[in-house]
User: What shape does this take?
Amino acid sequence: MELLSDNLSIYSYSCPGLFLKDRWAAKKKLNPSFTIRSWSKILGFKNNAPLSLMLNGKRSIPKKYLPRIVKSLKLSSKESNYLELMIDYSSQKDTDSKEYYLQKLSKYNQHNNSLGKEIDEFKYLENPFCTAILEMSSLPDFKLSPIWIKNRLAFDLSVQEIKVCLSLLDKLGLLTLSSENQVIKKYPKITNKKDVHSMGVQNYHQKASQLAAEAVKKQSVDEREFNSYSLNLNIEKIIEAKSEIRKFINQFITTFESNENEGDETYQLNLQLFQLTNNLKEKQ
Assistant: This one.
């Protein structure tokens, strides 16, 4: 088996950017002159910004650079094929496509269970009903029954879709049963890493926004709160603005979230801040 430094195999990776970042770090440890800038020149980039973004998972890896990457890292043919599959896998936008490439990746290392867990995490992360059911488990009348959950949800979801969510929650260890058959939610709150590009997170926000679009028509003004404003902001204040929004969310949850088995209903809190205009300077 081809091994990287510290006996870490390429086949333990599913993220091409992370693999390249670790491989670069290992080479730089042996050769301090092997900087991102010098590697960028070897790969044919005009500057080191694109490669830096790729290594940090903020930009996809164009396949046209694959031959130079393989050559610079001295990857074998088998490793090269695996790297190409990782690039394909990371670029997929839907679960079916991800599963297709996941199966191809898993053939290289059938003992790598983390690949299967990653696709389960993607399925969970992109589905707001999974998080809704997980939160519903803290309601005092909750029953671990697809029929009960279907009747309790304010939105239309099939029994089969509910079973898929419950299966994911079980496989990920997020929802379990005690020896007394009591439902146990392992973590009080689960969130994703902030400001990190993730297709699963994007899918989640799209679907959560669709639920909001339904709720604004179906639910009375006494049952929900919707506010929306257009305003002008200075770009340099965006980071501060996002920080304040996150502080508000944490404070809101601290103030209003019910204790375990004391809530009446499960709610969704969506907050969005996005551009309505294009930055003409970036287009030039």
Observations:
- Residues 199-218 form the longest helix (20 residues).
- The chain is about 55% helix and 0% strand.
- Confidence is low (pLDDT under 50) at residues 1-7.
